[in-house]
Structure formats: C-alpha cells, structure tokens
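Lecture 7 notes: from sequence to structure.

We start with a single chain of 227 residues. Read the sequence below before looking at the structure.
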Amino acid sequence: MKRAEKNKLIEWGFTRFNRFFLRYHFEQIHLWKDSKEIPNKRTLFLINHSTWWDPLLIFYLNDQIVQSEGYAMMSEKGMKKHPFFQKVGGYSINAELRRDMIESLQYSIQLLNEDKTVWIFPQGQEEHLEKRPLEFFSGTAYIAEHSEDVNVVPISLYYSLEHSRRPNVYVRIGEPVKNSSFSSLNRKELSNLLEDLATKQLDELREAVIQERHNLFDQQFRRWKEQ
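Now the structure, written as tokens:
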C-alpha cells in the first residue's frame, strides 16, 4: 500500500492547472447541493465512478466547494500508472491482497479520525454511467462503521451532451448521513443503505438533467471564459 505524500507546491500548481483544464474541456459544471452546510472534517465522500474525468472533478470539488484537507483512495494499478496523484493526496488500495486492503482501510479510518476528509469510489472500479444498481465493495461500510463521529456524503456525477459542442457535468452533493443514524446497523445493512441512497440520488440527478430542470443547479461554475 502506498500512502499519500502531499507536497504543497505540487498541490498549488495542480489546483490551478486542474481548474483551467476542466473549464477548457467542459461547457459547464452544474452543482446541486442538498444541504447548505457541507462538512469538511471527518467526512467520507462516496462518488460514483464512470469516467477518466472523475478524479479530476473530485479534486476540483474539494478545492472549490468543500475546501478540506482531503485524501482520495485509488487502485494500486492506477497509482502505479499515475504516481503523481500520491503528491496531491492519493493513496492506494489493492483489493486482491487482503493484508494490503486492510492496511488501506485502516489508513482511511486514521485520516478521518484526524479530521481529514476521505474521497472514495465505492464501486471499486469504473462502471458504465447507466449501470444499476450501484454496487459497493464491503470496505466502504467498514470505514464508516469504524470511524468516530463520521459523516457520510454521497456525491453523484452525471455527464451529458446537450446544446453545445462541449459536454456538461452535473454534480449533486447529497445530505450528510450522520454516524448516529447507522451506528446500530451491521456491515451488510449499512452497505445496502449506502448503495440505495447513492443509486436513488444518481437516478434523481439523471432525471433532472433529462428534464432540463436547471433551476436546481448553481450556475456559478460556468466555463473559464466567464470567470
């Protein structure tokens, strides 16, 4: 397992590159927040994973919206291919090796208990955007149940080609699920609860995009030329 080795100078540079890169490639980034207050400590963010763009978007969301000391779990294969992410808060997990996997899960819990935020793709790999239901690996519930006073926040990402040359990104940040609301559940029940919440939220986001319900979204994240 490879732990994060944050470098402030690299983070500073990547933050600015990433803002420009996303604004150049996407027409708009639309944000729908279920809660006015998004916790930025002791919070486990769960994001559906369907494209190469997802890690860049969660880095952008943490930079621009959540503004936390954030860390992100990524596959061992992905870390080896893109070791740069280790310098901006990425750490690895290898689900094929039990010892390595447990170490990664314990590291996630440690970060949360130190008031950090942890961002993970609970599906464990890229899946088609329209695949249902969302299925989470059991480590997601393990992290949540072993962390002290943790919030769990589902984030839905949906990509859409509409009335412009560039695609749009729609983001929904769900209501925080507080530890007190799931502390009595066993791991399987908790995993099912989180899967159901994330699936329902993604489906509602998809329907809002199809129906062009733009009033639900914050439009401040328009393309770079408008900022």
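The two ends are 40 Å apart (CA to CA). Keep this in mind for problem set 3.
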